[in-house]
Structure prediction request, 449 residues.
Amino acid sequence: MNKQTQLIPRSRGHVDILVGLSFGDEGKGKISDTITPQYDVIARVNGSGNAGHTVCDGTNKHVVHYIPCGFLYPGKILICGAGMAINPVDYTKEVIVLEKNNPDLRRNLYVSHQATLITPIHISKDIYRESGIGSLGSTKKGVSFGYADDTEHKGLRMLDIVKYSTKDFLSFYKEYREKERKLFPRLPIFLKGNDLTEEENIWLKYIDKMRSLKIQIVDTVQFANQLLAEGKNILIEGAQSPLLDVRLGHYPYNTSSHTTPQMLLGYAGLPPGALRDVFGVMKPYITRVGGIPPLSVMDDDTDKIFREEGHEFGSTTGRARKCAWTDEVLLRQVIDLCHPTKIYITKMDVCPVDVVKIAVGYLLKNGKNVLYPPMNLNDFESVVYKEIPGWKFENNELIPENAINFIAHIKKLFPFIEIAGIGVGPNREDIMYLSNNDLNKIDFVFEYS
Ligand code: GDP
Ligand code: MG
Prediction:
């Protein structure tokens, strides 16, 4: 290579990242599926089977827990990255189901050798904890225990499936199991001593199935960088919300992996300089599952109306999601956490009330009004609301004036962020676009004091 060619920059693609702006289930799956055609590579790099993303292609509804939402498009490269925690049973089953829609899927799917494995022992620990006083409202899929073992340097990783033969893997698993049994002898999975349970035998069978299906386990950091250098464009889909980040999120009601775009880029091993857009996805209300209700809760009747109209039941567990009002205070925080350049507002078609509330501030116990969540949530006293008129979508061609006012209000709060589109139904084509210039010109029908 002569000096001249060294100066020519490598052909580089770019990276975009998509994250939710509340507590999950904002419709990231739908948006990811909608924008997939613009990318060569779709990556999921964090979280586990506790996340559920829905894609409606106009004919069928698909729910994925592990595989990136680009799975319906033949030829797209799909990556499951290093920050994921994978249960081989659920992962393999999901691949087999999705292959029915995309026979090329397995050929284009790559999973990181550094992803950690969820074992039956993790699930047993999770069920045991959830049945007792330490319950956190988890999905009982062993996720936090899987990540904890990895942090303690005693977890199993995807690499072990490559490293060991079937026989050696069994000995390796038994060795790990014996250490755990000594530490946690009362765990239900160890009631029969050294004998493997049925769940464990199934789990081991699926480890083998991954081998026979030739699931491609690779160094995804090297692979993604190579793709980027070739000029491929990459979309990283965030599972869980930045508000639930293991370090920066609402502890202890957060998730077990990193969820902010900055950290997702890290899990992918991709350079910050390649980052182009961060897409934030929000609804005109908030939902939450698990241990703690959001602060801006709705009364029980309104909560029920929104849940039914918005079909707000968990895509992983079917649990009823708790509905809450849009919360500007949390929006400010999440925008600091993830710096979106563009926002999609999904579910604009779901507004089953005449009056919509928006949380505009919090009143603290010391009498102060604040616009940003206090460090110590024990200081929180109540939510300060403003009311705005609701809206009804009569058809998918016209955005009702009150809906535009809501969107323009979000735009006014964060003028540096573009409103990229609004969701008006679960299907791919149920999306509408509006001019941000026009939004900026709107005279607000409601103003906050
Ligand atoms: P994710 O976890 O953020 O990917 O969201 P989920 O898929 O768990 O939940 C979102 C739900 O809302 C799914 O059932 C979607 O099909 C549905 N959905 C997404 N966008 C829209 C929309 O604009 N309008 C309506 N009515 N439903 C939507
Ligand atoms: Mg979801």
Remarks:
- The CA atoms of residues 61 and 387 lie 35 Å apart.
- Confidence is low (pLDDT under 50) at residues 4-8, 445-449.
- The chain has two domains: 15-83+221-441, 116-212.
